[in-house]
Amino acid sequence: MRKGRHQKKRSFRLIPLVIFLLSGCALSTGILLGWQLSKEDQTFSSISGIQTPKLSTPLTPEEQQLSAKIDQLLQKADYIGSIYVRKNNRVIFEKGYGYANEQKHLPNSPALYYQIGSIQKAMTALLILKQVEQGNLTLETKLADFYPKIPGSQKITIKDLLYMRSGLHRTASPDKPMSDNEVIRFALAHLKFTDYHTYHYEPLNFTLLTGILLKLTNQPYETLLKKELIQPLQLKQTNFYEQIKNSPQHAISYQMSAKNDYWKALSETETDIRNELGTGNISMSVYDLDAFFTKVLSGKLIPKDLLFSLWQDNGTKHPYNGGVYSGNNYLLAQGNINRFHAVLAMKKNTSDAVVMESNVQADKKFKTPATDLRNKIYDLIEGSNQLSKG
Length: 390
What we know:
This protein is an alpha+beta fold. The chain has 15 helices and 15 strands. α6 (120-133) packs parallel to α9 (204-217) and α6 packs across α10. The radius of gyration is 21 Å and the shape is globular.
């Protein structure tokens, strides 16, 4: 592959005053990385009118060295997308790599929107927990209370759906755009029950959870998510993909080839978008993706005891726990859709975080996948190998 074909265009131009102030420092490389800011980032901030997180300044010598290592790792991997890193509650690194729009030579920026794919399932799971908190159901409530005609519904619980161990599988997908209720009805008519209590990653589980939310609230999913989650958490760079996809603030996704990272610009059909009801049709910036998990883990949406009854401590394993993968003291999340790839690792106390969103999902035959880069960077800031080992 022709590596670095966009390297010159994506390099960041440093503010002259910063260069002047830092020119005599022995650790100038690390400091420059900590202070660098592109004119394009400034442009997006002014267009959106949104206050974005700022690097903790001045960075300590150790933070400077760490940010330099992260940058070197991503450049070597020819990463395309944006990243935000926090350590000990201090922002130590944020940067965009490659193009958000290759045709217009528009660079990637942490202030841009990217699709988050299946990470949205964590949002749907939290809406379910809100209903638990309000006493409208429990994690042990049976699916039969809502959909008694589904095979196995007398034994399948809400928790089974959240953990994707219901044994339910979809047998077809819609071939035309549908409303919320039509998507649910289609799912109910095209499913099978095979292996109860065996984990299978199956979006149908969250389609049914969305249907339960519609029954309990009598509100469209979009209205519910905005009212119960986006607005209370003050997420300013979060929206449904269908509403933001044509904005210059949204990155374009690309299919890569062996010779060209931007071989083919991609788009998503309305049918595909609508079929992701409750499962993967949200776009966010890395700033908002970080803010979402930070605020939720801090107990600002769901009481911590209820939250961690779902996002449980599971030792060093990473089972699927309601939209996330739970480790002993950290959470992992990932989502990919239409070649967008969002990944996150965050300590449960929120002190440390790695948030990455890419608009060119790496083909592992040619590049290191974002999940592997996330794991390496998280282990780098933790001084361990708990994620990248093996």
